[in-house]
Amino acid sequence: MRIIANEFAKMRHLRLGLLTLVLLSGVVGLTAFRGLASGMANDLSDPAGFAWKILLAGLGFSAGLISPLIIAAIASRQVEAEHSGNGWLLSETSGVTPGRLCRAKFAALGVLVTTSTLAQSLILVAIGFGVGIASPVPVEQWLGYTTAIIVVNLAVLGVHLLLSAVIENQLVCMGIAVIGLFIAVFASALPEWLVMLTPWGYYSLVVPADYVGTDLVYLDIPYLSVLALGLAGAGLFTLITARFDRREA
């Protein structure tokens, strides 16, 4: 807990709160804009909840467009301080190995990313009520998507923490993030087995609503695949950071 608290202290100096706010406001703002541009205001009284479907479809798109890059920037900023200030060595001399430090960074940043993701859903539901959507909130779809996207965001965070720890040039890491962004946006055009090979592809897999023909419908979220991603990501992150513990800083 002392190490994690120290990571939160670093965040204040690195102004990661501002990046987290960009993540939150970017996803919420783009989702709300897409909803209004798609004519949501004309279907507020639809008993089938068409307006909620528009919001969920927009949220799935916005998360895939914004989250990969901002999460990569958050991870990069938190790790870059160790590279520039020889923090790996300083931490190891105080008894904190590189792998342990990476795990502390993940725990601290995971709180930020998870809180931001939860807030996105809550704010958009509040916006839905605020603009006057008359139909009940599709709780199952909102909870299911929110849970799934938290897992995906944390998996992407873990990948970028490891990349930033291994690669000292953070521009390379941000370049990989741009590639991940393209995968997240265009993964729907790829075979599902190929999409599931990268965490960024899951942004497309967990989209909660989309058009099928001319009908906007709820989509089934592949919860087992998301669970597999979470378990595999946790296992690999633990294994790789354990190897970091045995390397020289």
TrEMBL record:
Q: Which UniProt keywords apply?
A: Membrane, Transmembrane, Transmembrane helix
Q: Please, which domain of life does this record's source organism belong to? A: Bacteria
**Where does the chain cross the membrane?**
53-75, 106-130, 142-164, 171-190, 221-242
Q: What name is this protein filed under?
A: ABC transporter permease
Query: Organism classification, top ranks?
Result: Bacteria, Bacillati, Actinomycetota, Actinomycetes, Micrococcales
